[in-house]
Hints:
Helix content: 40-55%
Strand content: under 5%
Number of helices: 13
Radius of gyration: 31 Å
Amino acid sequence: MQTKIIADTLAKLKARVVDYEDVDPALWANKEFVLAVAQWNGSVALQYVNTKLITNADYQIIALEAVRRYGEALYRVNPELVTDYQTIALEAVKCYGEALQYVNTRFVTDYQAIALEAIKRHIAALRHVDIKSVTDYQTIALEAVRLYGESLQYVKPEFTTDYQTIALEAVKRYGAALQHVNTQFVTDYQTIALEAVKRYGAALQHVNTQFVTDYQTIALEAVKEYGADLQYVNIKLVTDYQAIVLEAIKQDWRAFQYADVSLKKDGKFMLQAIKQNRDMLQFGDDSLKDDPDFWREARSIIVS
């Protein structure tokens, strides 16, 4: 009889024929019923379970099932009533990394392990790490950026022992993470910026030029990756702009649309560009039409 009541009530809840508040209170003290609810709505199961009438052992089972299905349900778990909160918290972050924010550090035996598991599951979990409760923040931060470079934005550099390595690993994973690098805590920004543009040329737009020692090399690497990133080059900071433009159009001749207009009027440069790609002739300035030497050289290149 009890089994039928449980089955009928569950069916009505799923069909939304009855509300959770209208369920027979006795059922919320029934392990079989609450566990069944936990399997499809963990948060609700933990909200309505009658913890006064259910044993701690059964509450442990219900809570574990609830967070496995819905990690965020951890915020409803009463850590004082479970028999193994460590396992529950660990399962919660496995399901949903950001459930880390709901972990009650007073009741866990190994917060480091929970934090490590959380950052593996969600890019933003790192922001919820309780610095005071971890034993090795450097390892957690490093693992986070190796998995998700963009997690660098959540790293608290003042609590790391080697921020340089963390920042470098972040841009290796995701070049655009360069925008999140805290320059106050790095020892070699040049290397980090160079690595970033090698991975993602457009990261050039995020380079903090005050901290680089060789902008020319960084810009050159950026356009090698993707010619159109020429648009992010600061012409005032390079030592050989023409070399950068030539490298960019080698990768993609259409990148010349982002070059400084002065180069279109430079006959010598345009001839170098045409040698790389004949289509570059169309970008020459109208003023070159009146230069017979230019046209003679250009024709010679095209017909050769």
